[in-house]
Design goal:
27 strands, Immunoglobulin-like, 473 residues, single chain, Cytochrome Bc1 Complex, Chain D, domain 2, 2 domains
């Protein structure tokens, strides 16, 4: 009996030690104030190996900000910007969350964090009138990337006006190390005026209910990730993008033109998919995408519901600086005229015995039109209007009409860096066009003849001279 009791006692002690050990893994040690960042910045990864008490403070504030060039909107925000601050905590942390509602706010607000297990995701404990503060706490039980948003009635209206962001609950073991991390959140806006209508635009409940978005954007506005605002990386680096979708209505088909996602953490969770071209991000959902950049390029972020990208604003850029790896991507090595009747491809610049040389102005314009429709219209569009925030217009273009030599240089030498066209700033890349002197002259003559331009005529001799002299700025 004594021996049996000793065995039982030893077993109970062993079980107790195991339980204490497991409990200590989630014991709260110390406290810290959360580092919060504005998009596209991300707080640094968490390196501590224990759970702690994390204090998070967010302020709701209603502010007038830019939605697009010449277009303003009264956003309702977490932290004064759209999207709201990026919050980063660790699995097992105890979070003390305080929500302040600025005295200037016209409405009460609260917060529903999808990372919270509890009534309303925290909405019940954070309902806050203007000029007041509310505090509640929660335990971070589940690792993953989660959306947060306002859940005050009417919920859709609060979300549609900009009240959303992301909270990352890092797993205890952490995420694999990468070189750069970015925060990108897609959402849509519903305005009384159509896309681009100038001035302060009010919210349209009718369009929101009908899911007829005027704007679909990354990080709160058209052009937030283009030009000078483009994200930057270097060849050879590994990139992680925390992608969210605030909605309130539309699913995102997130895609990076010129890259393949090495890993996708599906819906911001633990399931990892590999070698993915486009990943679905539901409204109120997220994804984490990792990839390595192998050659210099400007990668273009889009919602591959593609009219949203080129006509409603869901377009961003990641500029990768460094060496061009021609083994991975050569760029254009040959440009020619396809002659289906002869079954051959004739390189530009070679003699074209089957093609009658353009002599009259009408023939030059017709030849230039053919080149424009095959080489230029994708960026500058068939009506010459370009793509707002991405590619400048050639219609009524003060940039082209002011300086013929500069226009020639842009076509034959390419153009990169910031420029201003018709009062708007652009900062994209136009590669050099592999055109003969005659073809370059004809396409510019066509452009000058169209869309209210100056009717200038460009000659092959002028193109040859600019080609010899180098780039014109």
């Amino acid at each position: 009996m004594v021996k049996m009791s000793q065995v039982k006692l030893a077993s109970l002690l062993a079980i107790s030690l195991v339980l204490c050990s497991n409990s200590n893994a989630d014991n709260i040690r110390g406290e810290e104030i959360a580092i919060l960042t504005d998009a596209p910045e991300v707080p640094p990864p968490i390196t501590r190996k224990h759970a702690t008490k994390v204090k998070v403070e967010l302020e709701t504030k209603e502010v007038k900000l830019r939605l697009a060039d010449g277009v303003d909107y009264t956003f309702w925000t977490f932290g004064g910007k759209v999207p709201g601050k990026f919050i980063r905590i660790r699995e097992g942390d105890l979070v003390e969350f305080t929500l302040h509602n600025h005295p200037s706010s016209k409405l009460p607000h609260n917060i529903d964090l999808h990372a919270v297990t509890g009534q309303g995701g925290g909405a019940e404990g954070s309902f806050t009138a203007p000029g007041h503060s509310s505090t509640f706490s929660f335990k971070a039980l589940n690792p993953g990337l989660y959306v947060y948003h306002c859940a005050t009635a009417p919920v859709g209206m609060h979300i549609a006006n900009g009240m959303y962001g992301l909270i990352m609950v890092e797993p205890k073991e952490g995420l694999p190390k990468v070189d750069r991390e970015f925060y990108v959140l897609q959402s849509e806006f519903y305005t009384k005026g159509k896309y681009g209508a100038p001035g302060l635009q009010p919210f349209s409940m009718t369009k929101a209910v009908e899911e007829n978005a005027d704007y679909v954007v990354f990080n709160g506005s058209v052009g937030s990730l283009t030009g000078d605002n483009a994200m930057k990386a270097k060849v050879g680096e590994t990139i992680r993008i925390f992608v969210g979708n605030g909605g309130p209505n539309l699913v995102s088909s997130f895609h990076v033109i010129g890259e393949i996602f090495d890993k996708v953490y599906v819906e911001g969770g633990s399931l990892i998919n590999k070698n993915v071209q486009t990943t679905l991000v539901p409204a109120g959902g997220s994804a984490i995408v990792d990839f390595k950049v192998d050659t210099a390029s400007t990668l273009v972020l889009v919602d591959h519901s593609i009219f949203r990208a080129f006509n409603k604003g869901a377009l961003g850029m990641l500029k990768v600086e460094g060496e061009h790896n021609t083994d991975i991507y050569s760029g254009k090595t040959k440009d020619g005229i396809y002659l289906p009747e002869g079954g051959v491809i004739q390189e530009i610049g070679q003699s074209a015995p089957k093609q009658k040389k353009a002599v009259t102005l009408e023939e030059k314009i017709a030849g230039g039109k053919r080149i424009y429709q095959t080489s230029c219209f994708a960026c500058h569009q068939s009506d010459g209007q370009g793509l707002n925030g991405a590619f400048p217009p050639v219609a009524k273009s003060d940039y082209l009409n002011k300086d013929k030599k500069r226009a020639i240089s842009a076509v034959i030498h390419g153009l990169e860096g910031p420029i201003k066209v018709n009062g708007k700033d652009y900062d994209s890349i136009m590669p050099a066009q592999m055109l003969s002197d005659e073809d370059a002259a004809n396409v510019l003559t066509y452009i000058y003849s169209m869309w209210g331009n100056s009717k200038k005529v460009v000659t092959p001799a002028e193109v040859k001279a600019v080609r010899a002299s180098g780039k014109v700025k």
